Amino acid sequence: MALPALALGWLLVASAPAVKYKASARIEAVTRSKLLTEEVFPKTTRVLNDIILAPRLESTLYTNLLEVKFVYESQLLLRQVTKENRALEAQQSVYARTDYKIRRDLTLLAVHTTTFGKFPFETYGGAAEVGLPVNQPTTNANAFSSGSAYIYTETAAGFLTSLGIKRLTLVGTLGWIVNGLLDPPVRPLPRGSAAYPQQRYPELRFQTIYGATRRDYLSLSVYGKDVSFSTGNRDAYLQLAPGLQHQFSPLVDLTVESGIALGRVYPRRPDELPEDRVMPTLETTLNTPVPIGHHWPVKAKVRARYLPYMDPLSTQLIPRADVGLELEWKGRREAKILGKLRYAHPLTSGLHRDDAETKMEVEALYPLPLSRYLFVQGKGTYTWLNHAVVGTEPVVQWYTSVGLVVRYDRGRL
Fold first, then answer.
1. pLDDT tens, residue by residue, 86-137
2. How does pLDDT run across 271-283, given as a tens digit for each residue?
3. pTM
4. CB-based contacts of 2: which residues, under 8 Å, 6+ apart?
5. How far is CA 134 from CA 141, 254, 349, in A?
6. CA–CA separation, 307 vs 280, rounded Å?
7. Cross-strand bridge partners of residue 166
8. Gap between the Cα atoms of 313 and 320, Å rounded
9. What pLDDT does residue 247 have?
10. How far apart are CA 336 and CA 364, in angstroms?
């Protein structure tokens, strides 16, 4: 009797789908500039420092035809105002993706992600409080309780196929996105009292890539969305961009995409007519290693773009150019150093003609020598922002953090 039961148990275990999972936890001590602090009601004393505890669980279930990925992360922010006064805030993130292979050349995709909580390092204001920059204390308890609480949720479905054609790939998704404050402004605010309105919109993404030769790839990208803001504004545009990618070597490639964007701006007043916009688009990306000594361990990514941009504060649809540089070094045991630099400037004669933004990010992860599960992590972010809606003076914001990361990775269960 024991032998048949053992055989049945072995059969059930062997036929069960494989599962991979990763568990990690991160604790960080944060130092930040005054503009990145919030007033803690009812006192007007600013936050002194933050301690972040972020447990994370990632699992993947997979079979020959199905793959399901699930990620959950919770961030607990302990904010210390004084030695006696502390505040605890929480931020939750969930990500789920399902890939189902109907046949050899057709896969269906479904994705959902939700992030809910408070911006820990962004001064997003609510409808009744000051946003960027923080220059007035909050006096309304209800406004503060939901002033910086936000939500980002996206649900999308799509496909991945080759249509049975060699060296051809087609990917398309259609999704619904809600992004913004839970207590959003319902009308435009005056300058100096900026607050990000909530956005709700469908989003279309489609891309096809065809390998013309072993080193040349032809592509066509289609991107569109129709955004409705909580302030009553509405913007929509559709972008089409054919492109070409050439691989000079396995480590060096250049991508150029040029196209056109058709946009429409709907006014708040019903007696005014919508305004149509036609904008050319251009995006170039170069991936190349950077020689250091006798090795090539550093990867560089240089990007220059000229694309339509929906300003989240004024809700205007304007052309904007930005250039960026990314450097990444990877060593043994997942050690890495990542640096990013980006500069953006609108190319318009309107309200945003003098706007500019510079952002720098640095992140380092290094494994401790005495354990395979412990890592030391450091982060730094610096932002210089000149925005017409925020005010006449540029806003400078920064924060740095040093933390400890614990990771545990297991294979099939």
1. 777 788 999 999 999 999 899 999 999 999 887 655 543 433 333 443 333 3
2. 788 899 999 999 9
3. 0.84
4. none
5. 16, 42, 28
6. 8
7. none
8. 15
9. 95
10. 6
> In the structure encoding, which two tokens stand for residue 227, read together?
């955004």
- Amino acid sitting at position 197: P
